[in-house]
Amino acid sequence: MKQKIDKLGVVIALIAMPTLLFVPFVTFKANRIVQGQPVWVFSALPTWAAACLMLVVIAVLVSAILKAGVLVRMTAACLGLVTVLIAIGLAASFLTPEGNSFARVSTATGFWMLLFAFAMLLIDALARLRPRPLARILLLLAGLALLGLLARIGVWNELSLLKEFSSRADSFWREGWRHLALAVGSLVIAFAFGLPLGILCYRVERLRAAILNVLNVIQTIPSIALFGLLIAPLGWIAANLPGASELGIRGIGAAPAFIALVLYALLPIVANTVSGLVGVDAAVSNAAKGLGMTDGQILRRIELPLAMPAILTAIRIVLVQNIGMATIAALIGGGGFGVFVFQGIGQTATDLVLLGALPTVALALCAAVIMDALTELATRARKEIATA
Predict the structure, then answer these.
(1) Three-class SS of residue 106?
(2) Lowest CB count within 10 Å: 79, 158, 348, 363, which one?
(3) What is the pLDDT of residues 324-360, one digit of tens each?
(4) Which residues are within 8 A (CB) of 126 and not within 5 positions of it... i.e. 6 or more apart?
(5) Where this protein primarily resides, as one coarse class (predicted)?
């Protein structure tokens, strides 16, 4: 019987094999500021390690091309990702001269392309497997635990990225907490205002268009411009209201960034709240009225639970959006991971840029996976309520 060929597997193979053979895997620098030299896989790794990497890549690609079972494809993708992550650490150790604290080994295009190819295979396998919400969260935790273990045992200690981290460990965690405070704190405040505003728009239809149009206008203002617009009024408040400056309200810093994130978050929350409430079947509300429920009871017990998937979708959108936009807060002294991104750009230091960018991407990915799982659970609960 003729073996079926998987089209996505072919695409992944066309990405991975040429990348492995013809694209630099790492970049070697004699020190932090000189121009780097590209190094290919077979020069970056000991012979045995390069051979192992090649065998693993071939095995993973065969399973991808020949339409192996979903669990086989997922296992192969995980094996490929782990192997590439270990290989980059081995390459850094292999290329760094013993006792040399100035040399830098950075990830190059080949590493990222291999990582991208195997990530595509893993995402495809998970999409076909369709794990339940809690299973997806457990898989995420397992992946984070594995990355933590590799970091803990020192696999990547010689990478330039980890050297940048080790010299800035204290500021990294400080800016990380600031980043989370900006992203999550602004979401909480936006939700506290946005949910009642969405309910008001749902109940008073003549206000709906006006409120949503105002929020749409705010959404179209570029973030840098909005930061700039907030500097003058916040600066005036700090200068003229006693105690405002001590509370952190200033023309520059976290305050304008926080307010801007809140304003950007309002539209998704309000719009999705209205959409979710409008989508509640009128027959369900009428049946609740027939049972003697008040409007407030219907809202709390029937309409909001049924609208919860739409509301959680808004929270997901806002959380991922705020995690990304909080990076720009560093431009006006708001802190966060953007501090490292803009320092790296100013110093032409790619690894310093990655020190700020990678945690931001990881936070956004984790937030998306967790919120997607919660939304799916809410959708199932909605179906149970609707059929009860």
Answers:
(1) strand
(2) 348
(3) 999 988 888 888 899 999 988 888 788 999 999 999 9
(4) 74, 136, 139
(5) membrane
